[in-house]
Amino acid sequence: MGDMTAHGPKLTQRGQATRERIVTAAARLMYERGVAGTSTPDVRTAAGVSSSQIYHYFADKSALTMAVIEQQTEMILRRQNTLLDKLDSFEGLWAWRDCIVDLVRELGCAGGCPLGSLTTELADHDPRAREALAAGFSRWGTAIRDGLRTMIDLGRLSPDADPDHLSLAMLAALQGGLLLAQAQHTTAALEAGLDAMIERIACHAVPT
Amino acid sequence: MGDMTAHGPKLTQRGQATRERIVTAAARLMYERGVAGTSTPDVRTAAGVSSSQIYHYFADKSALTMAVIEQQTEMILRRQNTLLDKLDSFEGLWAWRDCIVDLVRELGCAGGCPLGSLTTELADHDPRAREALAAGFSRWGTAIRDGLRTMIDLGRLSPDADPDHLSLAMLAALQGGLLLAQAQHTTAALEAGLDAMIERIACHAVPT
DNA sequence: ACTGGATTTGACTATCCAGTCCACTCGCGG
DNA sequence: CCGCGAGTGGACTGGATAGTCAAATCCAGT
Fold this sequence. Notes:
Helix content of chain A is about 70%, strand content about 0%. Chain A has helices at about 15-35, 40-45, 50-55, 60-80, 80-85, 90-105, 115-120, 125-155, 165-185, 190-200.
C-alpha cells in the first residue's frame, strides 16, 4: 500500500529526476523554514525548475508536502538503518544513542527531527499528512521494538519487559530531547532523556 | 530581568487591556495555526481591533510573537502550579502524569505543547525567540527538579539520584510524548514516556 | 471646560504567493 | 524522419499580507 503519488500519466526517466529534484529541494527548505515559510517560488529557485513544473508533478502544495513527508521518512530510516539493526544489545543501544547525540551536536543543536517539525506544523489541520507522519513514527518505533524483542529472545532482557511500551517511551524521549536541544542549544536534555530510557530498559536486563 | 515589551510611551489601563487582548488572540491563533499561518488581519479580527492597533503596541510581528511566548510560558506554569508544587512524592508525580494525560486526551490529542510548537517554528531562525523559549523550558524543568530535590531532602529518594539529569529527561519525555500524541492521535507514547521516566526515578526510591 | 497625549480608525501601498495558461522544446516509438 | 505526448519556460491573475499614515476620538489632569 501507499505506493507513491498516484501520478496518472507516465513518468519518463527525466521526469522522475525532475520530480525528485523538486521534492528534495522542498524537503530541505521545509526543514529549514517550515512548510508555511517555504513558498513555491523558493522551491522553484532551489530546484532550478520553472514555476509550472511544480504543478506538473504535484496537484498542489499539499501534495508536494505529502511527498516530502514520505521522502523524509525514508531518509531517516535509511540513515539509521545500520544502527537500528544493531539495537539488539546494550552496546547497540548506547552506540545508537551516541551517534544521535553526535549528529545533533555537529548540526549545532539546530533543526530538530524532520518528522517532528512537520508534525507540529501539519498534524492538527491536515489529516492525511498526520496519518503519513504517524505511519513514519510507527515504522521508526517498530524498528526499536524489534531490537528489544530480539534482546528478549536472546535472553538478554527479561520477558517482563514490554517492547511496545518501551519503544514508544524511547521514541518520546528522543523526540523531546531533539526539541529541547533546538530550544536550549545543548544536547543535555537529549542525553538525559536517552540515558534515562536506556537505563530504564537496563532495569530488565538479565545478568550474564 | 526580562520585564516586558520595552514599550516607551505610557500605557493607560485601557491600553493595557487592548494590548492583552491582542496578545491573547494572537496566542490562540498561533497555537492553532502556527506563527507563519497567523496573519495580522486574522489577529485583528480575533481581537476585535483595527489594523493599526497591533503596530501601535508592537514594533512588528516578531515583537508580538515574543509577547506570545512570554504569555504562553506564564500560562503553562500557572496552570500547572498546583501540581508542580506537589512533585515531591511519587503520588505527586503520578498525579501530575495523570493530569497531563487526561488533559491531552480531552483535547483530542491535538495541539501539542504551546512552547513546543513555537520552538520548532522559531528556534532556528529567531535567536531572541529561541532564548525566550529556552528560558521557559528552563523554568519548567526547574520546577520538576525542585520537586525531586525535595524528595531527596525528605529521604524519599536516594542521594545518588541526579535531579538535574532526571528533570531534563522528564521534560524530554513529556515534550516527545505530546508530539507523538499529536501525530498518532493516541496518548500511548505520552503515557509510555512518562511512565518509564517515573519508574526510572523510582529506581532511586528509598524503601520506607 | 480645555488641553495634550494616549488610543482608535480605516483606507492605503508595495510586496508576495498559490495556482493557471499557453506556447514552446525534447525525445521516443513507429 | 515524423508525430505525439511528456517536459519546460515564463508571463499572468486574483487574492492575501506586513506594515504605514493622517485624521478622528477618548480621557485624565488641571
